[in-house]
Automatic annotation (TrEMBL):
Cofactor, free-text remark: Binds 1 zinc ion per subunit.
Subcellular location: Cell membrane
HAMAP family documented for this protein: Pept_M48_protease_HtpX (MF_00188)
Broad class of enzyme this protein falls into: hydrolase
GO biological process: proteolysis
GO molecular function: metalloendopeptidase activity; zinc ion binding
EC number, UniProt record: 3.4.24.-
Family in the record: Belongs to the peptidase M48B family.
Ranges annotated as spanning the membrane: 35-59, 154-175, 195-219
Cofactor dependency: Zn(2+)
Gene: htpX_2
Designated name of the protein: Protease HtpX homolog
Entries under InterPro entries matching the protein: HtpX_protease (IPR050083), Pept_M48_protease_HtpX (IPR022919), Peptidase_M48 (IPR001915)
Keyword Hydrolase recorded: yes
Length: 290
């Protein structure tokens, strides 16, 4: 319930801020009596598309801590926490990034990395992962998450999401205008957009949104292959990451909030919309890499 409330409040806040910004800049006035102002529409689409993605990136770390109940390790309370912090520090130094915050959260096997900047990110692992894997396998998973940070995957995925969002907003409104103009052909008395515009825009937002989600998911899957290879490079050999993936294949992975799924070690079901490739494909790609 807490995650649902947070999701709703975050989206309401984002929409409100973007709506006010668009109104103040006047970029939402893309439908005029003389037709469609493509320049104004593109500006509106850009603000709506990138605005939400960038805001989500900037608040990703605090949202991750709150929604997953992450305990940030300020001072290790036991040998296991000290080992996790030392492992993250070792890989961060090797990858040439700043030391991320390190956290643990209660849950089924999973881990994630998040944050807007390479040098102030967060790496968190679940209690289920720590209990269900050997130390070498956990080390490989941590290497995978550090590789995500070093590769700049959070920013890259945000930019891709922003581009897709912009295209969805722009194209759906262009198509909506075209359909509305066709339906109202010869009606010289009416001005402004009609019902055809609004209905078409909503339908196209949904349909194009599905296409955009598939494209973003494809990019996310490529990043997973790269992060697996990055973990092997950080460890100096492939086998620990292969073993960790094989172990994950036999576990029930923990669910992550939607905003962090792309950065987790495991993903959802449904190949076209999945943020992660099948475990078998990841193992094969890792074994065949040089």
């Amino acid at each position: 319930m807490k995650r649902i409330a947070l999701f709703l409040l975050t989206n309401i806040a984002v929409v409100a801020v973007l709506g006010i910004t668009a109104s103040l800049l006047g970029v939402n006035r893309f439908l005029t009596a003389n037709g469609l102002n493509l320049g104004a529409l593109l500006g509106f689409a850009f603000i709506m598309g990138f605005g939400g993605a960038i805001i989500s990136l900037l608040i990703s770390k605090p949202v991750a801590k709150w929604s997953s109940g992450v305990h940030v390790i300020e001072q290790p309370r036991n040998a296991d926490e000290a080992w996790i912090v030392d492992t993250v520090r070792k890989f961060a130094d090797k990858a040439g990034i700043g030391m991320p915050e390190v956290g643990i959260y209660e849950g089924e096997p999973n881990a994630f990395a998040t944050g807007a900047f390479k040098n102030s990110a967060l790496v968190a692992v679940s209690t289920g992962l720590l209990q269900g894997m050997t130390r070498e396998e956990v080390e490989a998973v941590i290497g995978h998450e550090v590789a995500h940070i070093a590769n700049g995957d959070m920013v890259t995925m945000t930019l891709i999401q922003g581009v897709m969002n912009t295209f969805v907003v722009f194209l759906s409104r262009v198509i909506g205008y075209a359909v509305d103009s066709f339906l109202r052909k010869g009606d010289s008395e009416s001005s402004g957009p009609g019902i055809g515009y609004y209905v078409t825009t909503i339908v196209m937002d949904i349909l194009l949104g599905f296409v955009a989600a598939m494209i973003v998911a494809w990019f996310s899957r490529q990043r997973e292959f790269r992060a697996d290879a990055g973990a092997a490079q950080l460890m100096g050999r492939k086998q620990p990451m292969v073993n960790a993936l094989a172990r994950l294949g036999g576990m029930v992975p923990g669910e992550l909030p939607k905003s962090m799924q792309a950065m987790g070690i495991t993903g959802g079901i449904g190949k076209l919309f999945s943020s992660h490739p099948p475990i078998e494909e990841r193992i094969a790609a890792l074994q065949n890499s040089h």
